[in-house]
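dumping this here so i dont lose it
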């Protein structure tokens, strides 16, 4: 969740409808605020999706009557700037501004064709900082035995200075000398290293690169309770509920090794006749890690077993999807957990946010839409 005050959370839990606003800051590369605008914003959206390397993206339109947003090398708007949008909520007579990300200026659009909203307008769109780390100009090699967090910072030396990493000192180290060829995206390199310990790496709403363990929805306290059945105020506007077993697997095979190490393997399967996902009941559903090819990161039998157990717990499950519609929740973030009850379609329990689109225009009738899931895991 994007941090907000307890008063704002209480407002969203109990209602009634509240006053909102939007703000856009223009920052230089040292993150100093050069200018900020509110009244000029008339349309846009913030989109988040945890399946993308750049989780957050923005698309914002502003009135450009005076030309202050017209891009140019000597203007306020140029490729050396960042945009930082905020969603404002009036709380106890004061605005509380909730950041929505930091986005490098890229491919700005200035339009002189009249629309229903403005005579002159500009549009800023693009992904967060992950999309702009660039590519390496030479081969990059990370030596065996290094700490994951330390090595990621070393690879990004001279590119990024804003890090907010959880402690990785007790986690698995770099298992062998890893090399990426010239031209590889830096986002791919750091994602590969984070993947060794199956952690998430992403940019947060304040522009910090984060490295953390995945959030477990089964043990996480829900941020809010959204109850479509209550008689009082509710943010929940409905959802389409769907069961998805497309990624379910009850037979897991992991191979490891490389030209520098021996080949290893490990297999796990659900043979319990009382299990609702056993091979006897639903047939064999096979998952081959790394498409059945040896994974060079897995260098020992113990690592192969660890990966097999991880995949077994991850894939022996049925995912319940909710394509939802809700009154805009500007502090929502991917991986957040919400308690949802909707007797109209049988929804009940804790659900985790996968993706969403937050409307950023001035319309008071726009809903936030997105996709949550609830994992029903059958691995013991």
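and the seq i came up w/
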């Amino acid at each position: 969740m994007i941090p907000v005050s307890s008063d704002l959370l209480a407002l969203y839990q109990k209602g009634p409808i509240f006053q909102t606003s939007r703000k856009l800051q223009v920052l230089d590369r040292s993150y100093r605020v050069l200018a900020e605008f509110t009244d000029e914003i008339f349309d846009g959206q913030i989109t988040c999706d945890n399946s993308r390397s750049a989780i957050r993206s923005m698309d914002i339109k502003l009135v450009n009557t005076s030309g202050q947003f017209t891009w140019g090398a000597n203007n306020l708007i140029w490729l050396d700037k960042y945009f930082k949008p905020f969603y404002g909520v009036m709380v106890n007579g004061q605005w509380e501004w909730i950041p929505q990300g930091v986005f490098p200026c890229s491919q700005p659009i200035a339009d002189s064709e009249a629309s229903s909203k403005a005579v002159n307008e500009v549009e800023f769109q693009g992904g967060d900082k992950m999309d702009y780390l660039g590519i390496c100009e030479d081969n990059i090699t990370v030596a065996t035995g290094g700490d994951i967090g330390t090595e990621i910072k070393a690879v990004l030396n001279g590119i990024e200075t804003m890090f907010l990493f959880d402690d990785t000192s007790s986690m698995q180290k770099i298992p062998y000398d890893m090399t990426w060829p010239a031209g590889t995206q830096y986002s791919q390199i750091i994602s590969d290293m984070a993947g060794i310990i199956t952690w998430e790496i992403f940019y947060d709403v304040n522009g910090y690169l984060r490295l953390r363990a995945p959030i477990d929805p089964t043990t996480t306290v829900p941020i809010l309770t959204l109850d479509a059945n209550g008689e009082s105020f509710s943010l929940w506007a409905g959802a389409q509920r769907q069961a998805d077993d497309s990624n379910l697997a009850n037979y897991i095979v992991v191979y490891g090794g490389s030209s520098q190490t021996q080949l290893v393997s490990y297999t796990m399967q659900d043979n319990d006749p009382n299990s609702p996902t056993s091979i006897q009941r639903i047939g064999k559903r096979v998952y081959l890690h790394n498409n059945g090819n040896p994974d060079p990161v897995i260098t020992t039998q113990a690592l192969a077993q660890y990966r097999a157990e991880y995949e077994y717990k991850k894939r022996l499950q049925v995912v319940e999807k909710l394509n939802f519609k809700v009154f805009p929740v500007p502090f929502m973030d991917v991986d957040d957990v919400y308690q949802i009850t909707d007797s109209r379609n049988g929804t009940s329990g804790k659900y985790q946010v996968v993706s969403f689109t937050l409307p950023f225009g001035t319309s008071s009738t726009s809903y936030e839409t997105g996709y949550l899931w609830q994992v029903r895991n059958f691995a013991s």
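The chain has five helices and 23 strands.
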